[in-house]
Amino acid sequence: MSAAQDSAVVFRGVGKRFDDWVFRSVDLALPAKRTSAIVGESGCGKTTLLQLVNAVLRPDEGSVEVLGGGVPDTGLEAFRRRIGYAVQGAGLFPHLTLVENVSLLARLERWDGDAVDARVGELFELVGLTRDLDHRYPHELSGGQQHRAGLCRAMMLKPDMLLLDEPFSAIDPITRVDIYGEFEALQGHEQVTTVLVTHDIREARRLADFLVVMGGGGVVQAGAVDEVVSSPASDQVRRLLESGA
Q: Roughly what angle, to the nearest 10 degrees, separates helices 173-190 and 143-155?
């Protein structure tokens, strides 16, 4: 079976430009049911690559295949419902309570109330949130609680894929370690394909199975984390790995 057949996302000759090219000729396959981390220096195109997956951006050359098919030109709402998305800062709506934030998409999908409550309870247990927080507003929650809520909201609809853009970068180091463990429990329970953008190589090595190193207008190296760590393809990759030693 080919790598593409085992993959949740396949980039074929992909390039993206704004004024100048951010990257070109990206050929990359991200494994299904695993966590892939995209790392590299600021401005190398990590978030741009991520946003090609859920069609926030479109490639200027090449093609992107997601979950076994091309990214559609129409019907994006249904396509994106299959993909959870969490960003730096949690992104909670300040006028909604914790449970309203987490359950928002399910309520828009007209889930039965009992099903909503059961799913919220399941997710809260996995990430260490308690139901006595249900009716608190975001400003009444700690930073760690807000980020846990962001993960729960992204996972509420039981998506086939989860995209994470620096979701843990604004959290203090002690809380971050706790949330890493809760994320691993969530991933172990849900078995969802995850793509994580991070500037922190230690975070990538802790959470990911597959590592993508970007730089110089493209992908410098991609492979299983242990393979990249044991056999860095360039001085750039070696320096990045050493920065997290």
A: 20
- The Cα 49–Cα 189 span in angstroms is 27
Per-residue confidence (pLDDT) for residue 1, from 0 to 100: 39
In total, the chain counts a number of residues equal to 245
For the stretch 39-57, pLDDT in tens is 998 889 999 999 999 999 9
Q: Output the six-digit token pair for 163.
A: 């995209």
Whether residue 27 contacts residue 15, with contact meaning beta carbons closer than 8 Å, is answered with: no
Which residues of the chain form beta strands (DSSP E)?
7-17, 21-31, 35-40, 61-66, 69-70, 83-87, 161-165, 193-197, 210-215, 218-224
Domains, the chain, ranges and CATH? 7-244 (3.40.50.300)
204-229 pLDDT, tens digit each: 999 999 999 999 899 999 999 999 99
This prediction has a pTM of 0.91
